[in-house]
TrEMBL record:
One of its GO terms (molecular function) is hydrolase activity. Signal peptide: none annotated. This is Hydrolase. InterPro entries: Hydrolase_YcaC-like, Isochorismatase-like_dom, Isochorismatase-like_sf. Keywords: Hydrolase. It comes from the Bacteria. Pfam families: Isochorismatase (PF00857). The keyword Hydrolase applies. The lineage of its organism: Bacteria, Bacillati, Actinomycetota, Actinomycetes, Streptosporangiales. It comes from Nocardiopsis sediminis. Residues 18-168 form the Isochorismatase-like domain.
Length: 218
């Protein structure tokens, strides 16, 4: 089990220490997704991916048997248009050296994971990586399972193994941390307007009322 800090300031995510792995957001996997409304998971994983891009968090895209299960959903591929997902045959992503070597090459120990399905392709690598010294965060609302029960049981199992459950807006908030971090505010604000539901609508309204423009530094 990971010996990383579970409380205190060091337990929070930072852009400099984090790496993101997105696992199998493919049509075949979505076809039996019943723990969440599928369009919500799509929205949330897009928000998560765009957050990682805003904060320059290295992101690894993976698929499993894409020739049968379909390519990565297009909207997610469009966030990283020049990146080819790592296509696997192994169910457990963390047993594929093509993925693990890329993660380890970043030198980062805070591993953020989201994928389909929670009970299989998320739980397996999360539990194994936690046992190998990584501080693992699973983004539960950008992941999903075959049923509400399978998703819930997987999250409970991962927590017992030392994995930290988190939601995508919490990831974005921890990476930003300070409103004085002006460099990332325009990109973060644009992402929130697109994917943060009511909060995004309110932010759009606020910018309209204040007469500000994204990317202007205002």
């Amino acid at each position: 089990m990971s010996a990383a800090a579970k409380s205190g300031l060091e337990a929070l995510l930072t852009p400099e220490e984090s790496v993101l792995v997105l696992i199998d957001h493919q049509p075949f996997q979505f076809a039996n997704l019943h723990s969440h409304e599928p369009s919500m998971v799509v929205n949330n994983v897009l928000g998560l991916a765009k957050t990682a891009k805003v904060f320059d968090v290295p992101t690894i895209l993976t698929t499993v048997l894409e020739e049968r299960g379909g390519y990565l959903i297009q909207a997610l591929q469009d966030v990283f248009p020049d990146q080819k997902p790592i296509n696997r045959t192994l169910v457990n992503t963390w047993q594929d050296p093509n993925v693990v070597d890329v993660v380890k090459a970043t030198g980062r120990k805070k591993l953020i994971i989201a994928g389909l399905w929670t009970e299989v392709c998320v739980a397996m690598p999360a539990i194994q990586a936690a046992g190998e010294g990584f501080e693992v965060f699973v983004v539960t609302d950008a992941s999903g399972g075959a049923s509400a029960e399978t998703h819930d049981m997987a999250v409970r199992r991962m927590v017992q193994a030392g994995v930290v459950p988190i939601t995508w807006l919490a990831v974005a908030s921890e990476l930003q941390r300070d409103y004085a971090r002006e460099k990332t505010l325009p990109g973060l604000s644009e992402m929130l307007m697109q994917h943060a539901g009511g909060s995004g609508i309110a932010l759009t309204w606020e910018t309209q009322l204040l007469g500000t423009h994204l990317g202007s530094g205002a």
